[in-house]
Please model this.
Amino acid sequence: MVEVNKSDGQPEAGMALIIPNSNGNKKDEVSLPDLSRRMQEFATARNWDQFHSPRNLLLALVGEVGELSEIFQWRGEVPKGLPGWSAGDKEHLGEELSDVLLYLVRLSDICGIDLGQAALRKIRKNGIKYPVEKCKVSSNKYTAYQ
Ligand SMILES: [Mg+2]
Model:
């Protein structure tokens, strides 16, 4: 679980994520800068900054995407909400999703990219590429609407 450490109680800049806290009832918010800081502290404490090059982090990220893919491999189409999956399966899924997120956050940080702001810009750009009035209920690529 991720602890939230905010002196003013306000979310920091970037995208806020909701995760279960240790008591399993309430949920704490955590921002991408929170995760970035925690990853930096984790690496510094282990003297791992020397290994966290962009290339190494990208390859680690791809490896984690592979581990995430393995969970869905051979299951066929899976309904939303994952009905019938065991608690253990869902916990494993959450761990692999977290591995992907944490490497993505770390890679962005090492490359000097503000991931939250970049993601917000990308959502705005996608809104322009995929105008609601032209692409509602259509899965065509944006080039079909130009
Ligand atoms: Mg993993």
Q: What stands out?
A: The CA atoms of residues 15 and 25 lie 22 Å apart.
